[in-house]
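Researcher: I've got a protein sequence and the SMILES for copper (II) ion. Could you write out the 3D structure of the bound complex as structure tokens? I'd like something to compare against our soaking experiments later this week.
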Amino acid sequence: MNIPSPILTLLVGIFVTIASLWYGQNNGLMPVAASQEAELVDGLFSTMITIGFGLFLLVEGALLVAVFRFRRKDGDEGDGEHLEGNIPLEIVWTAIPAVVVLGISIYSFDIYTRMGGLELMKHDMGGPGKMVEVAYAADAVPGSSTSALGELPLEGDLLESDLSEGELISEAGLGAPVEMADSALSINVQGLQYAFIFNYPDGIVDGELHIPVDEPVELKLNAQDVLHAFWLPEFRVKQDMIPGQETRLVINAIREGTYPVVCAELCGPYHGGMRTQLIVHSAEDYAAWVDERMAALDNGEVIASLPTPAADKTDAEYLETFVDPLQLAIAPESLTALRSE
Ligand SMILES: [Cu+2]
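Model: Sure. Here is the predicted complex with copper (II) ion in place.
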């Protein structure tokens, strides 16, 4: 049977469209979506997979057709036919990718805005004066001896009026200002080789991240030593942790459960061990967890302390405090060995 080529093209088009739409929705490449942010990101991801899979079918299909249909005939030793210049075809393969790329750019920028990516810029990227403040703030962090912009003449008056000693300024991250929500919880996260330490309100410190479901939670991220990256795969968010400069993430959990927290920046030889858990509780369970930890604090049980190297402790003693209570994935001896190098 000889199908006319316009009809064949139409049939191929319909097949490729249906197959791409189906695979875009059913690729199963992403883990569970546990946050509002995840649903936004997954929408973009399935759109890109749909387009990518359609292109894959077209390109590989054309290749297979060419391999079989244009095989060299027996005894044919001549060159192939020389073809040049097909204006409509060139317009099509320039215009379609241009529209696709532009569409994806606009879509992804829209998601970035809806996740609050521009909120922080409005606040902290206000102009040259603010840039100087960031440098000054970095200077005031205990342990960081140099300022990134240390050579620049600083406007002293401006700085002292706007900034208290040691204050950190966040200027990067995702999430609408958390002050907008009454019940919002703010947690400080310290990244250090090779652990995350979570500082909750009321002095609770833990090696795991506990949050309530259906409530915005603000994470203020800091790094103690080198660059780390705070990654929540099931929440589809990742943010750099930068020594001397606080960054921020606002997350909205929509599913109870336990999810991994992973460092996504190669931060040293034991980087692979730098992971912990995020536990999303129901509101009641979260309150119960807080009560339990407060009771432990009241009884004088020191769960953990902020990572400040104490002069009266050896390296081993200092590191020991982080290991047991926080269930780190790494033995104290290994940490000690690293520190002493
Ligand atoms: Cu790390």
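Model: The longest strand covers residues 185-192. Confidence is low (pLDDT under 50) at residues 124-169, 305-309.
Researcher: Great, I'll pass this along to the crystallography team.
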